[in-house]
């Protein structure tokens, strides 16, 4: 599977992981590719194709612009990280972004690892419930993405009965909140949200079990961060960003999306959102979009596959879905109710 990041200095070449090789994609050394020898389960056909740029535009044939890209792209990424409050010290922003691109490949998942009794439909129901609890608790968005990431990993390493799946979901959200939030609910309050189907000691015992199984590794760079960085570099409108965030959250409910990297999910969601909304282009906007297109995130086949999954999910989203409700509010510009999302044929046609 293609893995990609950014690099413009030779010392960073020493940071590549075992069984991965770092290779430059341009003479400027800005776009770097992570390649992994081992493929991931059923996603082989989606990721084995030759690499492609995130967006349909290309910098090829523009030597003068290519000369500016290394420093300009780095500046834009650093500015985006600072504006989004994702960094505290700008001199280290670029290195942090490189680390984000690299560490996302450390815990690859495969659909084949799911327990036989845990279908995609059952998983979607559980994730939807977690999203409802997350909204009720008014947690940060990062907490939700981390909770689903921990759930995906736990389901592949823990033997959990169907009767304890809700408990596992709540524990993953609780652990994520401990890492991301400053204020936490009482354990007894979490039990009440599960109609006291589980006692306090059961929740705490499951928490210890999950933490020990995952070896206390709670590191995760959410796809949301990549999406916001790309959107900032590309100068996307608020409507495009909210639409992309809606599509990205829908990906949490799709078991098929588990095998893809966060950066791939973010890129596909943003690209699909922009195409669905079809906002009139401006010279400044197109130039920024062209710059963002130099961020290389994987094969074209994988990106188009993700876009197809998200298009279908958006077209089939029901009004009772927690994510649909969340993104139907005025604060989110009612993006989940956008008429373009219901035209499945048109959406899939755009992606093909």
> What overall geometry do the principal axes of the alpha carbons give?
globular
Reading the helices and strands in chain order gives EEEHEHHHHHHHHHHHEHHH
What is the number of strand segments? 5
Question: How far from one another are the termini?
Answer: 21 Å
Largest sheet: 3 strands, antiparallel
Q: Supply Rg.
A: 20 Å
Spatial strand order of the main sheet? 1-3-2
Q: Strand-residue fraction?
A: 5-15%
Structural class: mainly alpha
Percent in helix: 40-55%
What is the residue-mean pLDDT, rounded to a whole number? 80
Quick gist of this model?
This protein has 352 residues and is mainly α.
Descriptive overview:
Helix content is 54%, strand content 7%. It is mainly alpha-helical and 352 residues long.
Task: Give me the secondary-structure topology.
Elements lengths: L1 E5 L13 E5 L6 E6 L7 H4 L3 E3 L9 H21 L9 H11 L16 H18 L3 H17 L7 H16 L6 H7 L6 H14 L9 H11 L4 H14 L10 H16 L5 H10 L3 E4 H17 L5 H5 L17 H8 L1
Antiparallel strand pairs: 1-3, 2-3, 4-5
Helix pairs in contact: 2-9, 4-6, 5-6, 6-8, 9-10, 9-11, 10-11, 10-13, 11-13, 13-15
């Amino acid at each position: 599977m293609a893995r990609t990041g950014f690099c413009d200095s030779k010392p960073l070449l020493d940071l590549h992981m075992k069984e991965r090789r770092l290779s430059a994609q341009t003479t400027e050394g800005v776009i770097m590719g992570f390649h992994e020898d081992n493929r991931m389960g059923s996603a082989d056909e989606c990721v084995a194709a030759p690499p492609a740029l995130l967006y349909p535009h290309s910098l090829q044939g523009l030597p003068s612009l290519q000369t500016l890209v290394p420093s300009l792209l780095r500046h834009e990424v650093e500015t985006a990280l600072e504006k989004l409050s994702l960094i505290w010290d700008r001199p280290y922003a670029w290195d942090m972004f490189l680390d984000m691109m690299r560490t996302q490949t450390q815990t690859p998942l495969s659909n084949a690892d799911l327990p036989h009794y845990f279908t995609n439909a059952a998983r979607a129901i559980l994730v939807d419930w977690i999203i409802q609890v997350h909204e009720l608790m008014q947690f940060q968005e990062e907490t939700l993405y981390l909770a689903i990431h921990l759930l995906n990993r736990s389901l592949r390493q823990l033997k959990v009965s169907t009767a304890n799946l809700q408990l596992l979901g709540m524990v993953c959200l609780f652990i994520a909140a401990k890492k991301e939030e400053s204020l936490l609910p009482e354990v007894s309050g979490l039990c009440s949200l599960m109609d006291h189907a589980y006692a306090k000691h059961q929740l705490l015992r499951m928490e210890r079990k999950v933490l020990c199984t995952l070896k206390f590794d709670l590191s995760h760079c959410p796809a949301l961060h990549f999406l916001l960085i790309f959107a900032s570099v590309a100068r996307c409108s608020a409507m495009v960003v909210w639409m992309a965030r809606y599509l990205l959250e829908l990906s949490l409910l799709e078991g098929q999306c588990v095998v893809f990297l966060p950066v791939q999910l973010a890129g596909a969601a943003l690209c699909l959102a922009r195409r669905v909304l079809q906002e009139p282009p401006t010279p400044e906007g197109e130039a920024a979009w062209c710059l963002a297109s130099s961020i290389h995130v994987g094969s074209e086949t994988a990106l188009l596959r993700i876009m197809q999954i998200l298009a279908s999910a958006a077209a089939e989203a029901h009004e009772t879905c927690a994510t649909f409700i969340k993104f139907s509010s005025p604060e989110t510009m009612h993006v989940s109710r956008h008429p373009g999302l219901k035209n499945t044929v048109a959406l899939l046609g755009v992606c093909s």
